[in-house]
Specification:
By secondary structure, this protein is mostly beta strands. It is built from two helices and eleven strands, in the order E-E-E-E-E-E-H-E-E-E-H-E-E.
């Protein structure tokens, strides 16, 4: 599913890392929506309507749900979180989840949308559980760079200093990690590491990261990190 090319709805598109680096996630939003529309999760409810039936969005997925390939046309209501004229509703395409009827839930923009009045699928707990590092030796992961967290107060836009943690949606690597979202830890032993130039040229533009990783207990510890532009 195309979510691995973008960001979950509700994650901020970071234009200035100084506003959101210290102990908070910041990065690109990965999304299935090819329209390029940006919405504020803070003030606009995640809602879809299918044949006038309302589906409520549930985010926070750390694993990509399986889909059948079947698609359903849905309507996303207009969102006005800044004042002014209300934009028109938007017709979008949602995906049918494997082993879950479309009358119960759908997948759109990387989130599960549950029909109003129905219980969330029991698989939701699994989809919200990140994998633990369990591979022996050093191995390689590659995927979309979603965000960065660190304890240091940035001194300028894009400033990151070791140690920090990067969030990655894994597109390539051992099978148990592909199509999942993980956190990779970097410290002074990581070489090469990512720096301010990588934030500006890759993170802010929806680029990718390649990580040489080893397991430190359940943690993904980076021995080397490189970034590429989108």
């Amino acid at each position: 599913m195309p979510s691995r090319q973008q960001v979950l709805a509700g994650v901020c598109l970071c234009l200035a890392l100084t506003s959101c680096l210290a102990l908070t996630s910041c990065g690109t939003a990965r999304t299935h929506d090819t329209s390029g529309t940006e919405r504020s999760a803070a003030s606009c409810a995640a809602v879809l309507r299918v044949d006038r039936v309302t589906y409520i969005g549930i985010g926070g997925l750390l694993r990509d749900p399986e889909v059948t390939g079947e698609e359903v046309e849905a309507v996303m209501p207009g969102c006005n979180d800044t004042g002014g004229e209300m934009p028109p509703e938007e017709t979008v395409t949602a995906q049918v989840l494997t082993e879950i009827g479309s009358d119960t839930a759908l997948l759109f923009n990387g989130d599960v949308y549950v029909r109003e009045g129905r219980e969330a699928p029991e698989q939701l707990r699994y989809w919200r559980t990140a994998p633990k590092c369990s591979t022996e030796g050093t191995f390689e992961l590659a995927g979309t760079w979603l965000g960065v967290q660190g304890p240091h107060k940035p001194q300028y836009d894009g400033d990151i200093q070791l140690p920090y943690r990067i969030t990655v949606h894994v597109d390539e690597g051992p099978d148990e990690y592909v199509k999942t979202q993980i956190t990779v830890h970097a410290d002074i032993s990581t070489s090469p590491a990512l720096g301010p130039d990588d934030v500006k040229s890759s993170l802010w533009t929806g680029g990718t990261v390649t990580a040489q990783v080893r397991c430190d207990g359940d943690t993904f510890a980076a021995t080397a990190l490189t970034a590429e532009e989108n």
